[in-house]
Amino acid sequence: MAHVLVIDVGSSSVRAAICDGRAQILAETAESHAFTVAADGTSEADARALRRAVEGCVDRIVASAPPIDAVALATFVGNLLGVDAAHEPVTPVFTYADTRPAADVEALRSEVDVASLYQATGCPLHTAYHPARLRWYARSGRITPAMWIDVGTYLYRAWFGREVPCSLSVAAWGGLLDRGSRRWSAEWLHILGLAPKTLPPLAGAWHTERGLALAYAERWPALRDVPFFLALGDGLAAHVGSGAIAPRSTSLTVGTTAALRQMRVAETPPCPVPKGLWAYAVDETHELLGGATSEGGNAYAWACAHLRLDGEPLVFGEPFAHGLTVLPMFAGERSPGYRPDATATLHGLRLSTTPRDIVQALYESIALRLAQILDALGGTGALHAGGGALSASPAWAQMFADAMQTPVHLMGEEATVRGAAMLALEARGLGSLADLAPSASHRFAPRPEVAGVYRAAKERQIELYRRLYP
Fold this sequence. Notes:
By secondary structure, this protein is an alpha+beta fold.
């Protein structure tokens, strides 16, 4: 039977897993990590520390692994790393959640045709994407990198000891890839004053690299000549791993952050991107259309850290009986409004408000925010849902079903690992996505009797947003 080594570099943990020919996890190991955050909007990671964590996981998993047929890598995307001519880091890894370039977003609005570039790249002008971050870094007066790359490309260049391209999948998440040509945007390069050589060459998502550098061939002899697929965006892997493989089927992923996605055939010329959404290339012929929030399980992590919850299972009351209205934007806003200056807001506190009321309101508020994204997508028949945060809370899955009045099929928490394995197996001719797709472990039906309550709460949330961010 075939076996795939999957490496998943997520926002809160790094893991390595051995998956079989059915994309089922046979063994795995993980190591937690956290972004460095600060009140000024900083959200970054140490590239060398991430590399050590990844390599430690690979060391442990390959020590007793069966013969490996392929290696798949999925990483959190929207990350940017400056390296020198020897491919060594000279900057931190800047993450999608870093909002320090907010002023540069506003400055660029007066210099560029925002709407045109939005449609050309599929990405709005926002701190989650590279254009504003590169402008912000350029004016900071720090060391000038020889090249800007992503975490996956950094790992592969270290392991293979040579130049390795960046996949279209990862490049698309940075806001610098032209949707039509599948090349770096010449317009953005001109605006930012970047030479093409400062960005890595591009290759299709199913491009592979073989032949580890000597040090790593000796460290991981079982992987010496195994094909390594280029890094995939973790959102693509999670979408596929949720079983949303039919045209326009919709995935809901709630991990550290949250997202709704639909896979579509890429049109020529590219189809318009609806307001509030993004479109990311998957390969030469497909793209993901959807929207993501900067909040998800991180809101619950915040509550656990600061609200002195007693550790007992959360039992929630009737929807919105707490009287709270929440904007859960702890790390700025992505979809649908893309306000990098937005912050979390809790409205309606009373002396009777309890920590559990606040947690329930946070959960409900994130479901309402994702409901707005589903509205922009035009709705769907069902949601293929996954992600660690959602799998850990059936009550939250029910909230999503109620908020969107759409059935939620919970597919398990390992969607990213499973999806990366599925894509690698299909690319190697060892299976098809249709045969490898998972079955739902639980199904949550929307409750019509609470539809009006959720609809009214969504309107209150939208009105609070409009008042604070006109």
